[in-house]
From TrEMBL, chain A:
It comes from Aspergillus ellipticus CBS 707.79. The keyword Metal-binding does not apply. GO terms for biological process: translation. Belongs to the universal ribosomal protein uS13 family. GO terms for cellular component: mitochondrion; small ribosomal subunit. Pfam families: Ribosomal_S13. This is 40S ribosomal protein S13. GO terms for molecular function: RNA binding; structural constituent of ribosome. HAMAP family: Ribosomal_uS13. Keywords: Ribonucleoprotein, Ribosomal protein. InterPro entries: Rbsml_uS13_C, Ribosomal_uS13, Ribosomal_uS13-like_H2TH, Ribosomal_uS13_CS.
Automatic annotation (TrEMBL), chain B:
It comes from the Eukaryota. PANTHER family: MITOCHONDRIAL 28S RIBOSOMAL PROTEIN S29 (PTHR12810), SMALL RIBOSOMAL SUBUNIT PROTEIN MS29 (PTHR12810:SF0). It is found in: Mitochondrion. GO terms for cellular component: mitochondrial small ribosomal subunit. Keywords: Mitochondrion, Ribonucleoprotein, Ribosomal protein, Transit peptide. Belongs to the mitochondrion-specific ribosomal protein mS29 family. This is Small ribosomal subunit protein mS29. GO terms for molecular function: structural constituent of ribosome. Residues 41-75 are annotated as: Disordered.
Length: 119, 502
C-alpha cells in the first residue's frame, strides 16, 4: 500500500488510474503529471520510487482538487443564485440552465440542480 | 350487514326448466355420446391472463434476471503471458533423423552441406534461449530437435564469421548488415544462425530480440543526467539486456577481467581482478546502475589493450555479434512523453542511440575494435510504416548496385512527404577511419533455391511429418506454391497433414 495525498493505494493499481481517482484529475492532468515525473503510463503504484511518490503528492497538493474544487464549484452556483441571475434561479428550481427545452427530458437537471447541489 | 332478502323463500322457488337457463360457467360442454373423460379431466388452465399483472404494473417485456455465472479464479499474474510466450523446442512424436549434423566449426563453412538441415547443439540451446533467439510462432515444436536449413546466405555468413575469428586477412573485420526481405523469408532465423555460429566460435553475443518493447512506454525511463536532460535511460530494459548477455555468454565473460577504471561505477566494487561476469551482474542487481554498467561492459569488451595497472591477466577480447530484430520501431517517435508532454523520439533513448550509433563509423577507431558482425533485421509482419526508413533502405540498395549518390537515379526522399531527418541520417556511408570497418550493407533474403527447398522438404519427410514421395517435380510444385521458395510458406506446406485416399 502506498500513500498518495493521504489516500492508500494498493500496489497493483496503475499510477494513472490511481491519480484519476481524485476529483479534478482526469486523463489530461494525469498524463501531464506522469510526464512531469518521468513515469511511464503502465507503471504500477508499487513500482514508484519514494521520491516519485513525494513529488506526486507535492504536485497534487498544489493543485485545486478534491474538496477545494468542490467548494469552488458550489460557490460558483451560489454566486449565481445570490445575484439573482436567471441561471441561478434555474439552478434553484431544478430546471435546465442552458436553454434546453423543458417539455420532456429534464431528468439530468432534476437530478442535479437542487438547492444544495451534491458534487 | 344482513340482507333483507329471505334465502328460504328463494330456495322454494320452482326450478326453471334446464333449457331456459343460460349455460353456467361450471357446466362442462361435453359431447353427448361420451362424458366421463371430460368431466374427470383437471380444470383447463386459463388461457389469457389479464395483461398488466397487478394494479398499474408495467406490462412491457420483462427481462429475466441472469443467474450469476460461477467463475473460476483467473490464472495467476503472468501465467497467461508465459503460456503465450512459451517456446517448445522438441516433439517426442517426431522421428529422429539418423546422421543429422550439428552446427560446428567444420560444418558452418562446409559448402557441401548446402540444402541440408544442421541441428543446433543441445548445450547451446540454453544460450540461444537466453538471448531469446527463438520466437513463439516459429515451428520448432514439430520436430524432434531444432535445426535450420543451410542456404546460400548461411554459408556466406559462416565463412564471414570464420574469417573474422580466424588468423587470415579478415581478422578483426567489422561487417554491418541490414537484413531485409519479404514476410517469412527467414530473417529472424538468419539471425539465429548467426548467433549459433558466434556461440560456436566463442564470440560475445549481444541481442535486442524485441526492439518494440523499448518504445511502447511499457518500461521505466528517466533522464540520463542533469547535463543532458533530453536523453533518456531505461533502467529495467538495460538490466534485462545485461542479464541476457550474461546468461548467454557466461563462459566467455567469466574468463575476462576488468582492464581499466570506470567513471560511472563504484571504485570499491570494480577492482583489478573482477571478471566481466561479476561486473555485469552488478547492473542486473541494481537497475539504477544498469546503463552505466552496460557501458562499462561495452568498453571492456571493446578494449584492445589494458590501462596501466591492469596489465595482469589481460586477455584479448573476442569478436562480437550484435543483433537487433525489427529496427523499424526505432525509427519513429516513441510512446514516452517528455516534461512538456511531447513524444520522445526513439533516437533520444540512450539504449536505442547506442545500438544505432554502431551503424556509423567510429570516430577514432572502428565501432567494434575487436571485430565482429552487426546484423540489424527489419520485420515484415510487425513493423510500422516509416517512410524515411524505406528511403534509407532504397538508398543503401542503390549504392550497393553501384549507383552514385550524385546521379539522378539515386533515390531521394520526396520533399513533400516530410521524411524524418534523424532517420535519414542513421546510416552513414562515409568512408570509415578504421581500415577494417565496413560500411553498412543491405542483405535481402528471398526464397530458397530448388535444391535447398528439396533438402528442406526431405527434412519434413524424414521427420515423419510429410508422407509424400519427394521428387523434383513435387518439390518444384511446392516451390512455386511457396512464392518461389519462401521458407515460411514451404514450412506451412510441409507441416500440413495430408491423408491420401487409399
Amino acid at each position: 500500500m502506498v500513500f498518495i495525498l493521504g489516500v492508500n493505494f494498493p500496489e497493483r493499481n496503475l499510477v494513472k488510474k490511481s491519480l484519476e481517482s481524485f476529483f479534478g484529475v482526469g486523463n489530461l492532468s494525469s498524463t501531464r503529471l506522469l510526464a512531469r515525473f518521468h513515469i511511464h503510463p503502465t507503471c504500477k503504484v508499487g513500482e514508484l520510487a519514494n521520491k516519485q511518490v513525494l513529488d506526486i503528492t507535492a504536485a497534487l497538493s498544489d493543485m485545486k482538487i478534491e474538496n477545494d474544487l468542490r467548494r469552488q464549484y458550489l460557490d460558483n452556483i451560489k454566486r449565481l443564485k445570490e445575484t439573482g441571475t436567471y441561471r441561478g434561479r434555474r439552478h434553484a428550481l431544478g430546471l435546465p440552465v442552458r436553454g434546453q427545452r423543458t417539455r420532456t427530458q429534464t431528468k439530468t437537471a432534476n437530478k442535479l440542480n437542487r438547492m444544495e447541489r451534491r458534487v | 350487514m344482513v340482507s333483507s332478502f329471505c334465502w328460504g323463500c328463494l330456495t322454494r322457488l320452482p326450478p326453471a326448466p334446464r333449457a331456459i337457463l343460460p349455460p353456467t360457467l361450471t357446466a362442462q360442454r361435453v359431447a353427448s355420446f361420451h362424458s366421463s373423460a371430460a368431466l374427470l379431466a383437471p380444470p383447463a388452465k386459463k388461457q389469457n391472463k389479464p395483461v398488466g399483472g397487478k394494479f398499474r404494473q408495467g406490462n412491457s417485456a420483462r427481462m429475466k434476471k441472469k443467474k450469476p455465472v460461477e467463475r473460476t479464479r483467473p490464472p495467476a499474474v503472468g501465467e497467461r503471458k508465459a503460456l503465450r510466450k512459451r517456446i517448445i523446442l522438441s516433439n517426442p512424436n517426431a522421428l529422429e533423423i539418423p546422421g543429422m549434423k550439428e552446427v560446428s566449426e567444420e560444418t558452418m563453412v562446409d559448402a557441401r552441406l548446402r540444402g541440408s538441415i544442421l541441428g543446433l547443439p543441445v548445450p547451446m540451446l540454453d544460450q540461444l534461449r537466453a538471448v531469446q533467439a527463438f520466437k513463439p510462432k516459429q515451428g520448432w515444436s514439430i520436430f524432434r530437435r531444432p535445426g535450420t536449413v543451410v542456404r546460400r546466405e548461411t554459408l556466406e555468413l559462416g565463412r564471414l564469421i570464420d574469417g573474422i575469428s580466424g588468423e587470415g586477412e579478415d581478422k578483426g573485420k567489422v561487417v554491418k548488415k541490414i537484413v531485409t526481405g519479404d514476410r517469412s523469408t527467414g530473417k529472424t532465423v538468419h539471425l539465429l544462425q548467426a548467433m549459433s555460429m558466434a556461440f560456436t566460435k566463442k564470440w560475445v553475443v549481444v541481442t535486442v530480440p524485441e526492439p518494440q518493447d523499448l518504445v511502447t512506454a511499457s518500461t521505466a525511463y528517466a533522464p540520463l543526467s542533469d547535463e543532458n536532460p533530453n536523453v533518456y535511460v531505461q533502467p529495467e530494459a538495460s538490466a534485462a539486456l545485461l542479464s541476457r548477455t550474461v546468461a548467454a555468454n557466461k563462459q566467455v565473460l567469466s574468463g575476462l577481467t576488468v582492464s581499466r577504471e570506470h567513471a560511472g561505477l563504484l571504485k570499491s566494487a570494480v577492482k583489478a581482478g573482477t571478471t566481466l561476469e561479476d561486473l555485469a551482474k552488478m547492473g542486473i542487481q541494481d537497475p539504477a546502475a544498469a546503463w552505466n554498467t552496460f557501458q562499462a561492459l561495452w568498453t571492456e569488451l571493446n578494449a584492445t589493450s589494458p590501462a596501466p595497472g591492469f596489465e595482469k591477466n589481460f586477455k584479448p577480447r573476442p569478436p562480437m555479434l550484435v543483433t537487433v530484430d525489427g529496427i523499424a520501431h526505432w525509427m519513429k517517435e516513441s510512446k514516452y512523453n517528455n516534461v512538456d508532454v511531447k513524444p520522445i523520439h526513439a533516437h533520444d533513448l540512450v539504449f536505442v542511440q547506442h545500438f544505432l550509433s554502431l551503424l556509423k563509423p567510429g570516430p577514432s577507431q572502428s565501432s567494434l575494435p575487436n571485430g565482429g558482425v552487426l546484423l540489424y533485421a527489419t520485420s515484415a509482419s510487425n513493423s510500422p510504416t516509416v517512410y524515411a526508413l524505406d528511403v534509407v533502405l532504397k538508398q543503401l540498395a542503390a549504392r550497393q548496385a553501384g549507383v552514385s549518390p550524385s546521379s539522378p537515379e539515386f533515390p531521394q526522399p520526396d520533399p513533400y512527404l516530410n521524411a524524418d531527418k534523424r532517420v535519414l541520417a542513421t546510416i552513414d556511408t562515409s568512408k570509415p577511419v578504421a581500415p577494417k570497418e565496413g560500411i553498412p550493407e543491405i542483405q535481402t533474403l528471398g526464397g530458397l533455391s530448388r535444391e535447398e527447398a528439396r533438402g528442406f522438404m526431405e527434412y519434413f519427410a524424414r521427420s515423419g511429418l510429410l508422407r509424400e514421395n519427394i521428387t523434383d517435380a513435387w518439390v518444384g510444385e511446392k516451390w512455386s506454391l511457396a512464392g518461389g521458395g519462401v521458407v515460411g510458406e514451404l514450412e506451412r506446406l510441409g507441416r500440413r497433414l495430408r491423408v491420401t485416399a487409399a
